[in-house]
Specification:
heterodimer, A: Alpha-Beta Plaits, FAD/NAD(P)-binding domain, 5 domains, 5-stranded mixed sheet, 28 strands, B: alpha/beta, Rossmann fold, 5-stranded parallel sheet, two-stranded antiparallel sheet, globular
């Protein structure tokens, strides 16, 4: 440890720390511009000037480039220091008069006008464009306002961390500027935005070339940080790295080991970019499959305009936006930042539709009603519900529906067939128009609104089939897992010890999911408490002397009870899993598989008996 | 020197390939000749029916019978061979299971005759002339054997001691059978002298645990991957249902197994087993889809019962089963 005094206070820092680091650790404020914690010290801006005495001789020096040493006496704020910083600031202002941060500092240091200010007639240099390849979130080095102080943060981060070397310092003296090589867009630029994020004066900014406003960043409607929490209520609430956006992984593809800023900066050393997915094997007696669902992707119904028209959002996006801790702090905003005056909620998006899913998703009617209620509570916007028929069948649900009817929500009985922005009447100008057939009045209607919320349905997950095979359970035609018996065994499956809970078994709301989850837990506990499993007496057996190892039976077994013995090259039946369905026996071409109590000879004898 | 064995080879409804297989044992035939006298072999030497009749009952040590039993003359021969042989060996797929001739069992004898003498494109027979069983020629009465209702396997007509399977039987198993006779180490009666498992056991091709077929392909229309199971490539292969012992000769040569060794001991209807297995590995969501896939399997009956229709539980179509009952 190194001992020194800062403004006459004793301080202790680790070996190798800078004087600036020591000051920060001691809570002493030292102004900085070019200092970036995860870059090598550079000492470009000279704002961190302090007075340091070693062996009694004081001198003015930059705190960021000086290593702390035993017995140093540091003064961070006396007249000499202030005078020095004032000169530095005046010089910086001469170069970058438009930088707000310099103007603020100038005020603090009592500078009215820089003594070194240059004449204004010089025409602004042209903006330098970066590649237009990546459409989103690209960068422009804005040069028209004079903001750059040549602190080097931008090209240092580009060199040291991003390792792209896409920008650098060109020219000398008063003509020096930050630019890509030869003033042309660099192929090495990956449009990561690191330069803009470290620029202290705002000389480099990141802008969306398509001019989209970033309203709901966490709704993935716009560019975002590469390391983020999926949503604020995520469980577990930990960030993850989006490899598509991450500089490290982007540069990895170019053979570079870049960035790793998150690793350096995390005080708990919790970030490990080299971590890889690993398989963990657990021996368990019972399994509850609760893999859930995925929401219907409304992009599939092109005529509803999701992803194509502005202000057409999914139910989940609406939900996220309405949350008090959300990006809009619970305010319902359109993409232009204004509040919508009328909102349409379209029911049965992807449900009860033979083009997509025939089944009812069961939750959309009620959440649509809740949306309407939230809108009515928070805004005075008009709400239109486009429904096929209301399915408010749960406890207290019908009463809620009645309440909504009284709250002045418009209910239009007819599926929202199309959402368009093509106006046919003056009142439809610059609005979204929902087209539908109102089956109560028997008329075709066009309803102009500001925002459309799509009540997206529930679907089985993409990997449901893989999960099904893994656990040896079956699924229905629509892809949800099948319970053992629809009425009498609603949480069991055909594989003993495997239970189902929640929407993986079929669309259901939270109360039903909780009920089923509790039931599954009870069933699993009952099995574990008993410690014994009853198995079927009627099972298949494979005669290893006859089995030829053709493997036909293995893929056929619904219960994954057959495995291949690589040593003897024969298939084997796990009698604990076998349910004696006989599929393998029927398919076994060599007659090696036989079913106890239903042997081939027995069946043939029975047939002969019947026919004789 | 002990008395030499006496061998007899009897052809029946067959193509002659089985007898070629006997010759195919090359120089071993000399050892056979050393070991045994061939007392009857009409295909190779000038034997007549009367020569067989002259052999006393039990006078043949081992009688080899090849071919299916299709007409009453075949039945006569089978019964004679049985009477005169101490050991009767069913030689080849036709004698064992009816073989190719038994594919005719899908039709009645009358339908077959109609096809043969009336409708085959190369036949011109406006008068509908049919061969007669008897004909009074100037030299005397000529007779023809009467075709029975269907083709039979040998053991459906007479008692059989051993079976040498194959189309034709393989040299190594013929040699094994002769050696067993020479050493007097005969297996239990009814043994099929070949392997006990199925062709897959000897097949060098890689098999996966997810055997799924979404399209059947004719083998001559695709270039099959020599490393991979033919069935998994959609090529109809009888290997899983066929007794081994041939060292997967066809499959190694790039051809699908045709099932000539017949079923294993545990299976009593090879075609039914194959149909059931093939139906199990067809992957389809709807009946229509499954039908579409199976439609591509040309002539399933021919695939499943190429050699074994006489032994199938299917019997003969619309025909009555009376002639060969014994």
């Amino acid at each position: 440890m190194v001992k020194l005094t800062i403004n006459d206070q004793e301080a202790e820092v680790e070996e190798g720390a800078t004087v600036l680091g020591a000051c920060k650790a001691a809570g002493v404020d030292v102004p900085t511009l070019c200092y970036v914690p995860f870059l090598e010290p550079y000492g470009a801006c000279r704002m961190c000037m302090v007075k340091v005495s070693e062996n009694g001789t004081p001198r003015l020096t930059t705190a960021c480039t000086l290593a702390a040493a035993d017995g140093m006496a540091v003064v961070t704020d006396d007249d000499d220091v202030r005078a020095a910083r004032k000169v530095v600031l005046e010089l910086l202002l001469a170069r970058a008069p438009d930088a707000e941060i310099l103007q603020e500092m100038a005020e603090e240091y009592g500078i009215e006008k820089s003594r070194f200010a240059v004449e204004e007639e010089e025409p602004p240099t042209e903006a330098v464009a970066v590649p237009e390849a990546e459409a989103e979130g690209e960068l422009e080095i804005e040069k028209k306002p004079k903001k750059c102080i040549l602190c080097g943060s931008c090209y240092r981060v580009c060199e040291q961390r991003v390792q792209a070397f896409a920008i650098g310092l060109v020219q000398r003296g008063a003509d020096a500027e930050v630019a890509p090589p030869f003033g042309r867009p660099s192929d090495n630029c990956i449009a990561c935005g690191a330069c803009a994020s470290v620029c202290p004066t705002g000389a480099i900014t990141a802008a969306d070339r398509l001019g989209r406003q970033i309203v709901h960043d966490e709704l993935t409607l716009a560019s975002n940080s590469a390391i983020k929490v999926p949503i604020k209520q995520a469980v577990p609430n930990v960030p993850y790295v989006d490899k598509e956006l991450c500089i490290h992984f982007t540069q990895n593809e170019n053979g570079l080991d870049a960035c790793r800023i998150c690793e350096d900066i995390c005080p708990k050393e919790a970030v490990d970019l080299d971590a890889e997915d690993e398989d963990i094997e657990l021996d368990v007696g019972t399994i509850i499959v609760a893999t859930g669902f995925k929401t219907f992707d409304p992009r599939r119904i092109a005529e509803l305009g999701y992803g194509r028209l502005p202000n057409v959002i999914s139910g989940l996006e609406f939900e996220l936006m309405m949350r008090a801790d959300g990006y809009t702090e619970g305010e319902l905003l359109m993409e232009n930042g204004e509040k919508p005056k009328s909102i349409a909620i379209l029911h049965c998006v992807g449900s009860r539709d033979k083009n997509y899913n025939r089944y009812c998703s069961r939750v959309c009617c009620m959440y649509s009603l809740k949306f309407a209620h939230l809108i009515k509570e928070k805004t005075d916007a008009e709400v239109y519900q486009f429904y096929i028929d209301m399915r408010s069948f749960g406890k207290g649900y019908e009463e809620f529906y009645d309440r909504l009817l009284e709250e002045g929500v418009f209910f239009i009985r007819g599926r929202g067939a199309e959402v368009t922005h093509v106006a046919e009447r003056p009142e439809e100008e610059s609005k979204l128009v929902v087209c539908c057939e109102d089956t109560l009045i028997g008329a075709y209607r066009r309803v102009p609104v500001d925002m459309v919320v799509l009540a997206t349905g529930l679907e089985p997950r993409e990997d449901a089939d893989e999960v099904r095979r893994t656990f040896g359970i079956s699924c229905g035609a629509e892809g949800f897992f099948t319970e053992k018996h629809a009425k009498l065994a609603p949480v069991s499956t055909t594989t003993d010890g495997v239970f189902l809970a929640g929407a993986c078994q079929g669309p259901k709301d939270i109360p039903d999911s909780v009920a089923q989850g509790s039931a599954a837990a009870a069933q699993a506990l009952a099995l574990m408490d008993k410690g014994l499993v009853e198995i079927e007496p009627i099972t298949a057996v494979i005669d290893e002397n006859v089995c030829c190892g053709c493997k036909i039976c293995i893929g056929l077994c619904t219960y994954t009870a057959i495995s291949f013995n690589e040593e003897d090259k024969v298939s084997e039946v796990n009698e604990a899993l076998c349910k004696g369905c006989g599929t393998c026996v029927a398919a076994c071409t060599t007659g090696a598989a036989n079913q106890r109590h239903f042997k081939n000879e027995q069946i043939l004898a029975e047939i002969e008996g019947v026919l004789s | 020197m002990p008395e030499k064995f006496k061998f007899a080879f009897m052809p029946s409804a067959s193509c002659g390939g089985c007898e070629i297989a006997v010759v195919d044992i090359d120089e071993v035939i000399l050892k056979v000749a050393e070991l045994a006298d061939i007392v009857y072999w009409p295909t190779a030497l000038d034997f007549k029916d009367k020569d067989l009749e002259a052999i006393p009952d039990g006078g043949i040590t081992v009688g080899f019978f090849n071919g299916a039993v299709r007409n009453d003359h075949d039945v006569h021969h089978a019964k004679q061979m049985r009477r005169k042989s101490q050991v009767l060996v069913s030689f080849g797929a036709c004698a064992q299971m009816g073989g190719i001739p038994s594919l005719g069992n899908f039709w009645t004898t009358e339908e077959l005759a109609h096809r043969m003498y009336d409708t085959v494109p190369s036949v011109v027979n406006p008068d509908g002339t049919r061969p007669q069983l008897k004909y009074d020629a100037p030299e005397g009465e000529l007779t023809l054997p009467r075709a029975m209702d269907r083709a039979y396997a040998l053991d459906q007509v007479v008692d059989v001691d051993y079976y040498l399977p194959g189309c034709p039987p393989q040299v190594k198993w013929i040699v094994a059978a002769v050696e067993a006779v020479a050493k007097g180490e005969l297996p239990p009666k009814g043994t099929v002298i070949a392997g006990t498992k199925a062709v897959c056991d000897e097949c060098p091709r890689e098999r996966s645990e997810e055997k799924q077929v979404t399209e059947f392909k004719r083998i001559h229309l695709v270039e099959n991957d020599p490393e991979k199971c033919l069935l998994e490539q959609g090529i109809m292969c009888c290997g899983p249902a066929t007794r081994d012992g041939c060292e997967a000769a066809c499959v190694v040569a790039g051809q699908a197994c045709r099932g000539c060794f017949g079923p294993t001991d545990n299976v009593n209807d090879m075609g039914a087993k194959l149909a059931s297995a093939i139906a199990s590995i067809v992957i389809a969501d709807t009946q229509a889809e499954a039908d579409k896939i199976l439609d591509k399997l040309d002539d399933p009956a021919g695939y499943f019962y190429r050699f074994g229709l006489a032994r199938s539980m299917l019997g003969v179509q619309r025909g009555e089963r009376k002639d060969g009952d014994e």
